[in-house]
Amino acid sequence: MADVRKSAKQTAARTRAREKAAEFRAQQDKLEQLATDYFIATDSLEEIEASAQKEITAVRERAAKRSAAARANADAVIASMLALGTPRGEVADRLGIPTRDVKKLPVGPEESLQQEAKETETVSAVS
Q1: Which residue segment(s) compose the domain that 61 sits in?
Q2: Contact 78, 102 (CB under 8 A)
């Protein structure tokens, strides 16, 4: 009879141990699946970042081209104003920009002296 009790206790203990082991294995399987999901997610993050960087680079290149075109257009307008004989100071005042931003037209030495004389007249007239 003692053997039966001891055997029953052993059987019950083994059953509980198997249940605990099954719970542990289920938890380990769940943790493994979650780790797999994590690595899949982080791998996709790297792909997303790489794709975003490519798009950002493309947008910056397009913006640089458009900015250069707009800048060239603005410079052409300034050049046209200067070609009409308008002094740099007056062009700058009209456009509301510093005089240093008004680029000089490439001119010969005689025209350069005339341009400087006009600028001096405008500055003294404004003062």
Answers
A1: 1-70
A2: yes
